[in-house]
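Summary for the steering committee. One of the milestones for this cycle was to obtain a three-dimensional model of the protein with S-adenosylmethionine bound, which we needed before selecting residues for the alanine scan. The sequence and ligand used are listed below.
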Amino acid sequence: MKRPAMTRDKPVDQVRATARDVLRAVRERAAYANILLPKLLRERGITGRDAALATELTYGAARAQGLLDAVIESAARRPVADIDGAVLDVLRLGTYQLLRTRIGSHAAVSTSVDLIRSEAGMGPSGFVNAVLRKVSQRDEDLWVDELAPSMAVDLVGNLAFRYAHPRWIAEVFVDALGGSAGQLQAALAADDERPPVHLVARPGLITAEELALVSGGDPGRWSPYCVYLPGGDPGQIDAVREGYAGVQDEGSQSVARALTQFELADDHGRWLDMCAGPGGKAALLGAIADIDGAHLDAIEVSEHRAELVRKVTRDLPVTVRVADARQTDLDPGYDRILLDAPCTGLGSLRRRPEARWRRTPDDVVTLVELQRELLDEAVRLIRPGGVIVYSTCSPHPAETTEVIGAALAANPALRQLDARSEVGVDDVGAGPSVQLWPHLHGTDAMFLAALTVDA
Ligand SMILES: C[S@@+](CC[C@H](N)C(=O)[O-])C[C@H]1O[C@@H](n2cnc3c(N)ncnc32)[C@H](O)[C@@H]1O
């Protein structure tokens, strides 16, 4: 590890300084914590238990931001908007340690004071000390009891606060769950936990059993390609480094595989992935296409993301093109089309720590329009009797069932297929579409619907 930077009197704690730097980049320049943190850990030579602690503190504080801010506002007696950004980052980090880790109060407060003093001097460090001492006087449950809306009056608001979600997202979940408060609690709680790492064993290259053996993981429950990794850095596994395996949520694997599971008459092996970047599903589809003698066209609007698709589909029967999939110059007649649409990502919030606080209800409107246009193009490109799988990593009804409903209403030749048996996951409701959930299936909250066009 690099030598810690020296301040006037104490060495700066590299682990907490790194967590602070990521929180700052997230706040100031909308960085993605799950991309920046691994990069900083590598650059700073932070490994092993130190890396695990930095990850826990960074992702935990980013995920719990709304709850932490409410506690900080109460303890500081001022809105967080009135607190200097650099001070706020340290307060969030300190409050997270006090409320949600087993780190002792003294260590949580003193390391936070050292962190701000090294950067901003005595004045701000006195403020941080005073606020965190106040925070430390209660545990998380007591703070929640004091600050959350009353359960009797506003159950959704209470649960949203308790499990650190913006209220509008809790409302979307309760809608998607058919109004069940018990399910809402379980869904929010699952979303508030550190997510497990799922690996995909690329078919034809390595089996899930072999991957489980070399990675020390366990074969997954639903996808025949999935391995659950108990811990550690997946980037250190040879099979991942060599491209035989990748990191991919089991729900995402199940969606990609479902496209290949529908029985089609006269399948000519012309497959299309309309929104392919960064390529998780394209790599799995490409590997299955290789075995089935099919070919996959992969479209992606962003050049950078298309390059990522090219990388993971090298040596597979996949052609990657940079294009806007709303209006392509492709010839119709595809047998199978995956439309894994750009979406709010509300179904994978556990994997994107800060995303829940960055997304807004306005995002939904823009995305729904894009999703509808993309689905129109999929309908143009599919051959009669072919199958379109429309998927999102969001359970938001506006992005899922309502997009499908609108397409069915506008196209009399379009028909929805029951996707339940093809997705290979149990207990997915009454169909014909499938909504997966972390609390029910252990996957991200992926949605999928299958459509065909009658001749
Ligand atoms: C949900 S992600 C797809 C994830 C991908 N299927 C995977 O499994 O790795 C949506 C992708 O659609 C791309 N996209 C957005 N608008 C698009 C458009 N008009 N045409 C093609 N791709 C688009 C985004 O850049 C993004 O990479």
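Key point for the committee: The pocket of S-adenosylmethionine is lined by residues 252, 275-281, 299-302, 305, 324-326, 340, 342 (CB under 6 Å).
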